[in-house]
Design a protein that fits this description.
The structure holds two protein chains of two kinds. Chain A is α/β, with parallel strands linked by helices. Helix content of chain A is 44%, strand content 18%. Chain A has 16 helices and 14 strands. In chain A, helix 4 crosses helix 5, helix 9 crosses helix 11 and helix 14 crosses helix 15. The longest helix of chain A is centred in the first third of the chain and has 17 residues. Chain B is an alpha/beta fold. Chain B has a nine-stranded parallel β-sheet with strand order 5-4-3-2-1-9-8-7-6. The chains are: A alpha/beta, B alpha/beta. Chains A and B meet through helix 1, helix 8 and strand 11 of A and helix 3 and helix 5 of B.
């Protein structure tokens, strides 16, 4: 396999001006990942600042209801309320090692923007966050959080005014400010080396999960489930299990159903294409234009997915399923009531699939769900959808 | 001899105009191309509309949006090229595209259709040399020049790799950034032209940010064989959206003014600036 390729997927499909920055980033990353000073500083931030390790919570109530042993990997308890900080602390620290003086980021649901704003504040780097104008409205709380944390939020009014346009805008900023700016990409998407960097920084989720479940159960889980938008929380928990006999299931946004055409399920319903710097699965029309997507979860509302997931789909190592908005909303409420944990709507997709998958496991079967974020950011939206009735 | 080779053999420096196929509409776009040719464009770069043009600034991005709203597909682009070819049989035409358009169609089919329509070259803005292994043989098979891009940030090693597969002419990106008009061009264009000139015998054209007669003069003084103007022309299409006669008049006036920058100007700077302001 060529470097930067996952099977046939991945690569670097970018304007020439960006190539030098990607090569510099690749070289820096190879250097810092071997640097004990970098490792020890990142470990300190993850442990003392972000709150790692996160718990692997046995859910007694849900396990009783479903008839198998259900664990949640509690990335919702990470500082900032989602798994995103694993990556932003890693990349922000790397930017410091590279001598960059400014961070830019894109955000969909706002979680990555908040996590970048947190990392920028902690490490003393100014942050600008590009956010689709539609998303700034549906995630107004996160806009305010970013601003509180000292970041500047730039609403993006081009294209569909969602995550993909925010990525376009961030890439345009980066190409004009390569000397002093690091583009802190938030998912395992985009041109090489981003998919690898993000996967490596997120793999801490799976490494901890593996150790914790072995301590607790004395064996590996039967199934690990995670939601997939760009796919960073999923690749983070899957990667340390890829060579084990563990079923891995990625759950995409089924929106209003795959037949409706209103969804974000690029692996389940897309085709191979080049988008934002990488070859992967893409929701596109016959001419190669990305399609508009839909999900109740802003963080899953994206027409493409990380290239490593594309490879894992083709090889059959990971199974990808879709869960509808309605199923995700049901899971959102059910986890809140049975366990007292309000999941992010993105993570609720993984929970919804777990509710389905539990039927296939007996009472000793072990199911781990990556609870990638907490749902506080979604509470107002869900209240509106349900006319204020919880 | 290809039309591109013939142009640069005959003439230097040349004026290259950029337009997005289907902007502001499919039929109107043909009339825009004709107006640009009539005004003295020596070569046309015709962009295939794409919904996520990350290398482009806001002016050209909006042109892509207008063309897509008008329903422009790659089929329409090839039909347009065919009609421009009929209007200007000797004029070199270069398709400017993002790679997924080619990937989706299949490179062999794309280049075969481009050649059949009468295109002379294809520039793939987001396909660096490292990823071009699949398209290179297809371009060669149909006699299409692959126009190479070199940026100010391109290392000398990569310049060599890029130039080894290039033909037609080389597109030098003047600045670090996306397309779009700038008040002034960055210093260092002469350095870039000189460095690339040492490595290739191909003609060198400079684009990105070139939007005023004095920019054209700067680029020519830097030793370039051609200047490429995009956003400054595309903006006129947007500004005169409701009035084609005014749009064409504005394009003709702008190209005439920009073309004056191609020839050395004996007048002192002060006089020149006053004339541009008129």
């Amino acid at each position: 396999m060529k470097p930067g390729r996952y099977g046939i997927y991945g690569g670097r499909y970018v304007p020439e001006t960006l190539m030098s920055a990607l090569i510099e980033l690749e070289e820096t990353y190879e250097r810092v990942r071997e640097d004990p000073e970098f490792s020890s500083r990142l470990s300190w931030y993850l442990r003392e600042y972000a709150g790692r390790e996160t718990p692997l919570t046995y859910c007694a109530n849900l396990s009783r209801d479903l008839g198998c042993r259900v664990y949640l990997k509690r990335e919702d308890l990470l500082h900032g309320g989602a798994h995103k900080l694993n990556n932003t602390l890693g990349q922000a620290l790397m930017a410091k090692f590279m001598g960059k003086r400014r961070l830019i980021a894109e955000t969909g649901a706002g979680q990555h923007g908040v996590a970048t704003a947190i990392a920028g504040a902690a490490l003393g780097l100014p942050v600008e966050v590009y956010m689709g104008e539609v998303d700034t409205r549906r995630q107004a709380l996160n806009v305010f959080r970013m601003e509180l944390l000292g970041a500047r939020v730039v609403p993006v009014v081009s294209g569909t005014r969602t995550l993909k346009d925010a990525i376009n805008a961030a890439m345009r900023d980066w190409v004009a400010n390569l000397g002093d700016t690091h583009y802190l990409l938030g998912s395992c998407v985009g041109p090489h080396p981003f998919p690898r960097i993000v996967r490596d920084f997120q793999s801490v989720i799976g490494e901890e999960t593996r150790r914790q479940i072995l301590e607790r159960e004395g064996r590996l889980p039967d199934t690990v489930v995670a939601c997939v938008g760009g796919g960073s929380n999923a690749i983070g928990i899957f990667y340390p299990f890829v060579n084990d006999n563990v079923a891995l299931v990625g759950v995409e946004a089924g929106g209003e159903g795959l037949d409706s055409g209103r969804h974000g399920a690029s692996l389940s319903a897309g085709s191979v294409g080049v988008f934002q710097g990488a070859l992967s699965y893409l929701l596109q029309d016959g001419d190669g234009q990305a399609l508009e997507t839909h999900s109740v979860a802003a963080g899953l509302d994206h027409p493409s997915v990380g290239p490593e997931h594309a490879m894992l789909k083709d090889s059959g190592r990971v199974r990808y399923e879709a869960v509808t908005d309605a199923e995700a909303l049901h899971a959102f409420r059910r986890l809140s009531r049975t366990e007292g944990i309000i999941p992010a709507l993105e993570s609720a997709h993984a929970v919804a699939y777990a509710l389905r998958a539990a039927d296939d496991l007996d009472k000793d079967g072990i199911l781990v769900v990556n609870l990638s974020g907490r749902g506080d950011k979604d509470v107002a939206d869900v209240a509106n959808l349900h006319g204020g009735v919880a | 001899m290809s039309r591109i080779d013939a142009l640069f053999a005959r003439k230097s420096p040349v004026f290259i105009g950029f337009t997005v196929a289907g902007d502001p509409g499919i039929e109107a776009s043909l009339r825009v191309a004709k107006a640009m040719i009539d005004a003295g464009a020596d070569l046309l770069e015709i962009a295939v509309p794409y919904a996520d043009p990350v290398a482009d600034g806001p002016v050209i991005e909006r042109a892509h949006v207008r063309a897509l709203r008008a329903g422009t597909t790659p089929d329409d682009v090839f039909a347009l090229v065919r009609r421009i070819r009929g209007y200007a049989p000797a004029l070199p035409l270069v398709l400017f595209t993002y790679h997924n358009i080619i990937h989706r169609r299949g490179p062999d089919r794309f280049f075969s259709e481009a050649a059949a329509a009468g295109a002379d070259g294809v520039l793939i803005v987001d396909l660096p040399v490292e990823e071009s292994g699949e398209v290179a043989p297809c371009a060669a098979r149909y006699g299409i020049d692959r126009i190479a891009l070199i940026a100010p940030t391109t290392s000398p090693e990569r310049q060599h790799a890029i130039l080894s597969g290039a033909s037609g002419f080389v597109y030098l990106i003047s600045l670090e950034g996306v397309t779009g008009e700038r008040d002034r061009l960055p210093p260092g264009i002469a350095g870039l032209v000189g460095a690339v000139r040492e490595k290739t015998g191909l003609p060198l054209a400079v684009g990105f940010g070139v939007s005023r007669p004095e920019h054209v003069r700067t680029v020519v003084a830097a030793g370039a064989d051609g200047v490429i103007v995009g956003s400054a022309l595309v903006r006129l299409i947007e500004e005169h959206a409701g009035d084609e006669a005014a749009m064409h008049a504005a394009l003709r006036a702008a190209i005439a003014a920009l073309r004056r920058g191609l020839v050395p100007d004996p007048e002192p700077d002060m006089l020149r600036r006053e004339r541009v302001e008129e």
